[in-house]
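[recover] target loaded
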């Protein structure tokens, strides 16, 4: 089982790899000097490193996971929005959030964001991990936020 130190080290390694990947454009002049499989391999590596959508997504998640994390509980305010007791953060649509789902198939910590829809009973958690379900926010729910 991975410990926090190992997860932190993996995050650092991925950040360093992303930094190196950003330097790939400088390898273009070498393509003409290569031939055969070496040229194909370098072209493939350049292509993989330049896939902007996946690289940007990876970079986003690495930056997110490296941020300090604070846990607390949410409570419904008179204005209809939820607030976190330990930070005073008021949650609105799109706010990144981690929620502890106490039971069921998606039980445990999940990472996602806050959304709002009347068909889901108001503010809810949209999971980007786990089973990608919608979970209504409710007073007392254990959550965590990372510095933005």
């Amino acid at each position: 089982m991975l410990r926090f130190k190992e997860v932190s080290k993996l995050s650092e390694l991925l950040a360093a790899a992303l930094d190196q990947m950003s330097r790939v454009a400088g390898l273009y002049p070498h393509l003409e000097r290569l031939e055969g499989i070496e040229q194909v391999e370098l072209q493939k590596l350049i292509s993989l490193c330049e896939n902007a959508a996946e690289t940007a997504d990876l970079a986003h998640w690495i930056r997110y996971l490296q941020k300090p994390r604070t846990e607390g509980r949410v409570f419904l305010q008179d204005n209809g929005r939820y607030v976190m007791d330990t930070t005073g953060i008021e949650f609105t649509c799109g706010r990144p959030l981690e929620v502890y789902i106490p039971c069921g198939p998606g039980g445990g910590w999940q990472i996602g964001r806050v959304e709002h829809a009347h068909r889901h009973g108001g503010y809810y958690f949209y999971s980007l991990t786990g089973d990608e379900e919608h979970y209504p926010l409710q007073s007392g729910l254990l959550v965590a936020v990372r510095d933005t």
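[recover] notes: The first strand starts at residue 69 and ends at 76.
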